[in-house]
Amino acid sequence: MELANTAAADAEREAGSYAAAAFSLSLGGPASIARSEPIEPRPLREALVAHSAFPHVRIADTYARLRAIGALRHRQYVAGQGKPYASAVRDAGTLLELADFSSVNLYAVDRDGLTAAMRVGPLVGSNHPKARHFQSIAEDLNVSARRTLICTRLVRDPRHSGRHAVDLVSFVRVRTVEAGWRYCLMQTSEALVRFFERQGFTSTGRWSQDESAGRLQTMLLDTHDLPVRPKAARTGDIHIQGAA
Fold first, then answer.
1. DSSP letter at 11?
2. What mean pLDDT, rounded, does the chain reach?
3. What are the distances in angstroms from CA 41 to CA 112, 182, 195?
4. Which has the closest alpha carbon to 12: 156, 151, 170, 155?
5. For the stretch 80-93, what's the b/e string if a residue is b when 16 or more beta carbons lie within 10 angstroms of its beta carbon?
6. In a domain, 221, yes or no
7. Is the pLDDT of residue 238 over 90?
8. Considering only 93-97, 156-160, 207-211, which range has the smallest mean pLDDT?
9. pLDDT at residue 237 is higher than 90
10. pLDDT for the residue 160
């Protein structure tokens, strides 16, 4: 995996500048949202909608857009990395899975097309192949399963630096915390652990064996009901090719 730091100023502009400009006024700054338990989060398809602070982030709401994400995955995972993933659809050069049709897929674009994508689904009722693995982690860590997301298949086009991958994570955090979600579980290879740590994830110390991707670490993001990461916690951007 290609991992390299870019300037902190670049990260501030591309991945975090929305915090001061867009959300400090509307949310009263990065302070915890007062909530009373129990919280029942809104469905993800209602929560994950376009936001003016992320004009380049879109929702894959048609099969054509989902297929474009599948094509990027195939180029990166199958053609680029030689991983023997099996697709749930017959479209040539496309990698889509059953979980894609019960989750929300996000993508980012620039003037040349799709730059990055990620799949987001709820832990409760998930049909992800490793759903039981995720559920056991939530139980062991005593986090609310009904407020936990599973974020998977983060991938970026190699022509792009990876800032849009950071933006996808930030977008999901903003929109889902607003909707009552708090936690996010993510599987990743060892090479990308540092990337997710810089987005606020921590290691759970739990691993799983993926038949195509190999050994994957599961990481947890606890937002503490903060839609925007505290500015002091942000660091430089990282180039990212793909995560499971």
1. H
2. 81
3. 35, 9, 27
4. 170
5. eeebebebebeeee
6. yes
7. no
8. 207-211
9. no
10. 82
Q: Tell me if residue 174 falls in helix, strand or coil.
A: helix
Across the beta sheet with 183-188, what order do the strands follow? 57-59, 104-110, 113-122, 148-156, 183-188, 214-222, 202-210
Q: How many CA atoms lie within 13 A of 13 on its CB side?
A: 5
Q: Encode pLDDT of 82-140 as tens digits.
A: 888 889 999 999 999 999 999 999 999 999 999 999 999 999 999 888 899 999 999 99
Q: Could you tell me if residue 81 is inside a domain?
A: yes
Q: What is the DSSP letter of 76?
A: I
Determine, yes or no, domain membership for 178. yes
Question: Which structure tokens are listed for 138?
Answer: 């939530």
Look up residue 30 and give its DSSP letter.
S
- 217 - beta bridge partners? 188, 207
Determine which helix (DSSP H) or strand (DSSP E) holds 98, and give its type and residue range.
none
Name the amino acid, one letter, at 192. L
Q: Judging by DSSP bridges, how do beta strands 183-188 and 148-156 pair with one another? A: parallel
pLDDT, residue 1, reads 38
Closest Cα to residue 108, out of 45, 62, 40, 154? 154
Domains of the chain: total: 1
Q: Which residue has the tokens 């023997």?
A: 84
Task: Give domain status of residue 240, yes or no.
Answer: no
Retrieve residue 95's tokens: 């990698």
Q: How far does Cα 54 stand from its chain's mean position? A: 14
**pLDDT tens digits, residue range 24-57?**
323 333 333 344 456 799 999 999 999 999 999 9
**Domain of 201?**
8-20+41-233
CATH number at residue 126: 3.40.630.30
